[in-house]
What we know:
It is a single chain. This protein is of the alpha+beta class. The protein has helices at about 5-10, 25-35, 55-70, 80-85, 110-125, 145-150, and strands at about 45-50, 95-105, 130-135, 155-165. The site of flavin mononucleotide has 10 residues, from β3.
Amino acid sequence: MDIIQAIETRRSIRSYTERPVEKTVLQKLIRLAVKAPTGSGMEPWGFVVLQDVEEINALSERIKQNVLEHLEDYPQFAQYESWLRSERYHIFNHAGTVVVIYGDTASPWHVYDCSLVAGNLMLAAAEEGIGCCWIGFAEALFNDAEFKAAHHVPDGFHLVSTLSMGYTKVPVPPCSRKEPVFFSWK
Ligand SMILES: Cc1cc2nc3c(=O)[nH]c(=O)nc-3n(C[C@H](O)[C@H](O)[C@H](O)COP(=O)(O)O)c2cc1C
């Protein structure tokens, strides 16, 4: 798959096969992802990889509960309240792999850099038939000191992106987008 095709066809995937993402494949994808540009060459990223299905399921429940209990702190999630209240809703859509990308706040560019890594990871994954979805809901838990300590995230690292990943079961047709707005083009 060439890069244009990957960009054209990438969609958020929320349905995965049972096949686990192999460690070697994930390592290859993350090594590709960190080829992203990086402000001042600081490479301010670190990863937590979750592949224990029971842990992922438990985290999904905790995140749902956490958001619902503190909805006032998450105005961006209010529109999804009915999803969060549904027993069937799984934050990670039953993905077998969740990759959490943390940025080192010592770099003023860490949010940009880690977002570029996430973008690369999603595009590189397409080549392997692996679908991804950025999970913003995860912000309700993965930045907590307790979670970070349990997963050995060093002080000073802040959550930037969470990607659920798995071999794509149900592909999604290419997206359409609004026409880009040009504020000026001289
Ligand atoms: C910052 C960010 C947060 C997102 N959070 C979620 C999420 O919590 N759950 C989810 O299912 N999709 C989430 N998405 C995926 C978006 O819903 C998706 O990218 C958007 O609908 C466009 O669809 P596409 O990615 O298939 O083109 C998120 C995407 C981004 C960039």
